[in-house]
């Protein structure tokens, strides 16, 4: 069984009940979280996940609303009296990841975030391109603005994608074209750009996340259909899951 769950669809804005944009990807034994900003660690706990059930986090870039909850995730794994971590945590991201985490360890004290008697943190700085986690092939794709990345993968011959902060540009179109499902940063796009992205990529299910404003799903779908989109535009909601 493979599925994708929207842990959060929010942004840096502080909105009641809305968690920063993040997704949980479960692929036949591989479980990973894509981006880990404000509220994500608590959302995972609320869904019943134990620390040791999460071994991989992939971050798209280093804005605080995409990485900040790595701090409580690490601290809880080290010092929780009810759910301590006993398995190593692997964090994957662009070059600069080690400098980021080392800065946290220096700021807070290494022992406050990583208890070496319980687990280790393995940092993997990724160049753009293909890579593998536990034998599963994935793509780490560089997308403007500089430093941002998307994550791609396939299930039973169908292709899927997620993006962090991004915009409307040829690199985004190339990355998304032909995907079965894609979760995009819609907060930095106008309604017209969302429509044009749908039309030019023909993603079968295009899910809008990273929402700075309310979107009208019905209106977007009607506009997109008029100019040739044959798929479905979906306005994401926290906690919604999609079978892959």
Describe it:
The protein is α/β, with parallel strands linked by helices and 244 residues long. It has a single domain, classed as Metallo-beta-lactamase, Chain A (4-Layer Sandwich), CATH 3.60.15.10. The protein has 8 helices and 14 strands. Strands 6-5-4-3-2-1-14 form a 7-stranded mixed sheet. A 7-stranded mixed sheet has the order 7-8-9-10-11-12-13. Helix 7 (191-201) links the parallel strand 11 and strand 12. Helix 7 (191-201) packs across helix 8 (217-226). The longest helix is centred in the middle third of the chain and has 12 residues, at 97-108. The protein starts with a strand and ends with a strand. The mean pLDDT is 97.
Provide a compact summary of the structure.
This protein is an alpha/beta fold and 244 residues long. It has helices at 40-46, 64-67, 70-79, 97-108, 110-113, 170-176, 191-201, 217-226; strands spanning 2-8, 22-27, 30-34, 56-58, 89-93, 121-125, 129-133, 136-143, 148-155, 158-163, 181-185, 205-209, 232-235, 241-243. Helix 7 (191-201) packs across helix 8 (217-226).
Question: Which terms would index this structure?
Answer:
31% strand; single chain; 27% helix; 244 residues; Metallo-beta-lactamase, Chain A; alpha/beta; seven-stranded mixed sheet
Question: Could you outline the blueprint of secondary structure elements for this entry?
Answer:
Elements: E1 2-8, E2 22-27, E3 30-34, H1 40-46, E4 56-58, H2 64-67, H3 70-79, E5 89-93, H4 97-108, H5 110-113, E6 121-125, E7 129-133, E8 136-143, E9 148-155, E10 158-163, H6 170-176, E11 181-185, H7 191-201, E12 205-209, H8 217-226, E13 232-235, E14 241-243
Parallel strand pairs: 3-4, 4-5, 5-6, 10-11, 11-12, 12-13
Antiparallel strand pairs: 1-2, 1-14, 2-3, 7-8, 8-9, 9-10
């Amino acid at each position: 069984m493979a599925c994708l769950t929207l842990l959060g669809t929010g942004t840096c804005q502080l909105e009641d009940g809305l968690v920063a944009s993040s997704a949980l990807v479960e692929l036949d034994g591989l479980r990973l979280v894509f981006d880990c900003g404000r509220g994500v660690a608590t959302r995972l706990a609320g869904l019943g996940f134990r620390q040791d059930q999460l071994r991989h986090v992939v971050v798209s870039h280093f804005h605080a609303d995409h990485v900040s909850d790595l701090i409580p995730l690490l601290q809880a794994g080290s010092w929780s009296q009810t759910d301590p971590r006993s398995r190593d945590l692997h964090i994957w991201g662009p070059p600069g990841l080690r400098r980021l985490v080392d800065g946290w360890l220096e700021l807070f004290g290494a022992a406050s975030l990583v208890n070496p008697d319980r687990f280790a943190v393995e940092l993997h700085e990724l160049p753009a391109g293909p890579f593998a986690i536990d034998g599963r092939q994935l793509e780490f794709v560089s997308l403007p603005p500089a430093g941002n990345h998307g994550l791609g993968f396939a299930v039973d011959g169908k292709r899927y994608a997620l993006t962090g902060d991004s915009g409307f540009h040829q690199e985004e179109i190339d990355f998304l074209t032909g995907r079965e499902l894609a979760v995009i940063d819609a907060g930095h796009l106008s309604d017209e750009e969302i429509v044009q992205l749908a039309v030019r990529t023909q993603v079968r299910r295009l899910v809008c996340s990273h929402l700075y404003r309310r979107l009208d799903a019905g209106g977007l779908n009607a506009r997109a259909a008029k100019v040739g989109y044959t798929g479905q535009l979906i306005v994401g909601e926290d906690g919604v899951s999609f079978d892959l």
